[in-house]
Design brief:
62% helix; 0% strand; globular
């Protein structure tokens, strides 16, 4: 595929893209290194800004033994166990088999997450050449790449987009289904891709994509759902029942209404769930309509970018590493250096102020006041809204693609 790409798509070589990826990941690993030992009694995870979910979850997910997630019951503790989607849990399980303490567990996970990052970089390079640097050189990747396991889902989503744009509809759906079994967000990307096929009067291709995504997700999850339904449901039940997270606009609203920085309760969880869904559906319809009126022929699949932004803005949960979801879309749908730089600034500001405030909250360090964290969230929100406006206003551009080998690929 690289051999047959159009020349203008590759002003720089893949080697330079991968060198930048290696440098970013190496710096990211260095940032997390002070937290690798797992001894956080001195509050170093906040004072030194090296926090990562990977280290504590080695214990809370009970991975020191050969326990199989979902299949083997968790011992009863105060912490949640088996709280991630299936493929993410088994990525942890795989890394734990090569680990004997917190440090080796972190290193093992960094290694397999680096493979996922490599796959993302190659997929983006195949699609947009040098614009893959929007991913490989991003500060968001540096600070969040090894914080959680989101890079696996991003890899499936990006590979699914590559397959989609190469007319591999069944493959694209299967990859998105695997992504949804890793982190639910790739399931959202099925919608604009199916819309693209329907808009181009290719309903069979759209149906194949949708069915492939659904069947793949069911095939992966069904055995565990039948074998251990309660454990398998933990992730879905936990996220349905949780309240507004610190990084969400909902939390800021609650804080302003109640004046309380922690343990905010300004409405029922069910109310948050309904309000989030209504806000998402309403804003997506508005942005879609605005884009269609301004550019009637815009590629519908690119609506995955505003869809993810609106999901993050309207959701009651916006974990800081979710910024990784958007990085490939800056390369694919909105290659604006200015907006990208502003998003990086805001995303890193959220990281610094969030964990600095946590240090202050726990007494581990002086830290920044909560208001600074709020300002960073508001800044990120403003930047993301600006990205929405820019996407609506931007003239649609063709993504350089490898030449198809045969007409049979159209129906694949």
């Amino acid at each position: 595929m690289i051999r047959r790409m159009r020349a203008p798509a590759r002003p720089i070589g893949l080697g330079l893209v991968l060198v930048s990826l290696f440098a970013t990941l190496a710096l990211g690993a260095a940032v997390k290194a002070p937290c690798a030992g797992g001894d956080w009694g001195d509050g170093r995870q906040y004072a030194r800004l090296c926090y990562t979910d990977i280290v504590p979850l080695y214990d809370t997910e009970q991975l020191r033994s050969d326990r199989l997630p979902y299949v083997d019951e968790c011992q009863e503790t105060e912490a949640n166990c088996d709280e991630y989607p299936l493929l993410t849990m088994y990525a942890m399980r795989f890394a734990a088999w090569f680990s004997h303490d917190h440090e080796t567990f972190l290193i093992a996970n960094e290694a397999i997450l680096a493979v996922a990052a490599f796959a993302i970089a190659v997929c983006l390079y195949l699609l947009v050449g040098s614009r893959a640097l929007y991913f490989t050189a991003a500060p968001t990747l540096l600070v969040y790449g090894f914080m959680n396991w989101d890079l696996f889902a991003v890899a499936f989503a990006t590979a699914g987009t590559l397959a989609f744009l190469n007319r591999r509809n069944t493959t694209s759906g299967a990859l998105l289904g695997l992504g949804a079994a890793t982190k639910l967000y790739p399931a959202l990307l099925v919608l604009p891709k199916v819309a693209e096929r329907l808009w181009r009067r290719e309903p069979v291709a759209g149906v194949r994509l949708a069915w492939a995504a659904a069947i793949t997700w069911v095939a992966v999850n069904l055995p565990f759902a039948l074998l251990a339904p309660q454990s398998w449901w933990t992730f879905y039940g936990f996220n349905s029942a949780r309240g507004a997270d610190w990084d969400s606009i909902w939390f800021i609203g609650c804080h302003r209404l109640t004046g309380v920085e922690t343990g905010v309760e300004c409405g029922s969880t069910r109310l948050f769930n309904i309000a989030s869904f209504v806000a998402l559906a309403t804003t997506v319809a508005f942005v879609w309509r605005a884009k269609a009126r301004r550019h009637p022929g815009f590629p519908r699949w690119t609506a995955g970018f505003p869809l993810l932004i609106l999901f993050l803005l309207t959701s009651k949960v916006y974990s800081p590493q979710y910024g990784l979801w958007l990085l490939p879309w800056f390369a694919l749908a909105l290659p604006s250096r200015t907006l990208f730089a502003l998003f990086q600034l805001a995303d890193v500001a959220v990281f610094v102020t969030r964990f600095s405030w946590f240090g202050r909250l726990t007494g581990a360090s002086e830290g920044m006041p909560f208001e600074w964290f709020e300002y960073a969230i508001v800044l990120r929100t403003v930047v993301l809204v600006a990205c929405l406006v820019a996407w609506v206003r931007r003239e649609p551009q063709e993504v350089p693609l490898p030449v198809l080998d045969s007409a049979q690929d159209v129906a694949a």
